[in-house]
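Below is a filled-in request sheet from our internal design queue. Each sheet records the structural input a requester submitted and the sequence that came back. We keep these sheets so that new team members can see what a complete request looks like end to end.

REQUESTER: design group, bay 2
PRIORITY: normal
MODE: inverse folding
CHAIN LENGTH: 70
BACKBONE (tokenized):
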């Protein structure tokens, strides 16, 4: 079967999901983008695809969930 790779991409304030080199979505946090990727990955698993989800770590310049705070 095929492969379904989902990469969470973005920065503080806006996040998306890159799937098949095509960035999609507009999420307000890294966590929201991850949850959407998990839902898509769940469907891919049902079709027998290999699934991978990658989420960037905190590089020290933002918050852990990728949102702007005061």
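RETURNED SEQUENCE:
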């Amino acid at each position: 079967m095929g492969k379904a790779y989902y990469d969470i991409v973005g920065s503080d304030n806006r996040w998306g999901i890159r799937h098949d080199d095509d960035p999609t979505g507009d999420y307000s946090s890294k966590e929201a983008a991850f949850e959407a990727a998990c839902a898509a990955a769940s469907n891919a698993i049902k079709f027998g695809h290999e699934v991978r989800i990658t989420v960037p770590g905190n590089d020290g310049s933002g918050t852990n969930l990728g949102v702007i705070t005061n």
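SHEET NOTES:
- The CA atoms of residues 13 and 53 lie 20 Å apart.
- Strands lie at 3-11, 14-19, 22-27, 50-54.
FILED BY: M.R.
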